[in-house]
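Section 3.1: Structural characterization of target chains.
Under the original work plan, the team committed to producing a structural model for every single-chain target entering the pipeline before any wet-lab resources were allocated. The record below documents one such target. The sequence was received from the expression subgroup and is listed exactly as submitted; it comprises 462 residues.
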Amino acid sequence: MPTDQHPAEVSLRETVGRPSGARSFVLLLLLGALLGIAPGLASASHEAIGPPVITPLSLAVNDLEFDRHSGKIYASVPSRAGALGNRIVQIDPKTGALGSSIFVGSEPFYLAISDDGQYLYVGLHGAAAVRRVHLPSFTAGLQFSLGSDPNFGPFFVDDIEVVPWDPETVAVSRMKVGFSPRHEGVAVYANGVKRPDETTDHTGSNRIEFGSSRSTLGVPDARLYGYNHESSEFGFRRMTVSSSGVSTLDVTGNLISGFVVDIAFEDGRVYSTNGRVIDPEARTLLGTYPVGSGGGPVLPDSDHDRVSFIGGGELKMFDLERFLPLPSYPIPGISGIPDSLIEIGDGNLAFRTTADQVFLVRVPTGAISSPPGLPDATEGARAQLEQLRLGVKTLANKNLGQQLDSKLQNALAALASDRRRACSELADFSNAVQAQRGRRVPAATATAWIAEVSRIQTDLDC
């Protein structure tokens, strides 16, 4: 927010997005899946997605969190915002109206909220510290530093997460400022006191997410996942958080790849901002959403059977299980780089941009009437195969791409009259991809294609 603008003058306006780039066969597939007529394509509870209502706010924000207990959004506001600077500000998720605010310290940035809604933790980039806010009373309390290095100075928050069942304990990915690599290890702090065990510095988990709870690992341990997006090692790390701190269990390279990629965890899966989805315990790639170049902040939502991304000026949504695109919608007036994509209740979304914008996105849902001519499993398979063909055509080896595409075309031609032949062609396709896995077909791509064909074969009762 400009320093000469009064906080009450935050501009609000509503715009309705229009679908862009949605192929008719994908929409048909979605309609069939919504009513459960196409077996295995999606759950019958998958809801219709209408055009979102988008409310933009002009406000400088470094991070966002949503408290499901109070129904409020909390925003960390930097000093450049003027009167609201260096404060945590409440935002009404339905109207965008700004509520109460409190001073928390110099340059508040990353936020993390406890599962029980008791505490909000704030990384202070101007003070090299963490501040804890008691949310029921909305008061700032405990502040603690993260340590330092005699040669590189104090440590700052690179990412922060609250231990799922312990609101007084956080895991922090630490960094130094002005040096490369910046990573200073992951450490655990209970009421501001660091537990002894921490991970190594230099190369490690710039981004962290809690996964499995103590119910699966034993009290009081928890699984913490991390990703190195700072160097080409691109390591995915499994870590264990216990009463003595945090330790690294193992590292898997290039399971997720890419610089400045972030991760999110939900229901036993890790989702990345470049579209990849992995099983973090098996350390295998489950699939890839076709988000296009660059990707963007990601939000998995199993309650509504979809995954959302913000990228290329659009809200991009995908069927969570099938990796198929749902309608995408332009975001009018967006500028800068989007980040901090969060769910704000009832499947609605909010995010910020580096151009001092916050967007609230209401995604209408509801039942739809039964139209004629809904697709069956054959039509669903046809839609999935057409999507698969698009991927095959991107292979660097054009001859191999043509051979594989020919097998998919044969399967498509046989779908209507000879399902057994279609199944045979699909098996030939998978065998051909497997034979070139890691050679002329990248290993991760081969895994995703074979998995998709396997799902199609299941739908067709091959």
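The radius of gyration is 24 Å.
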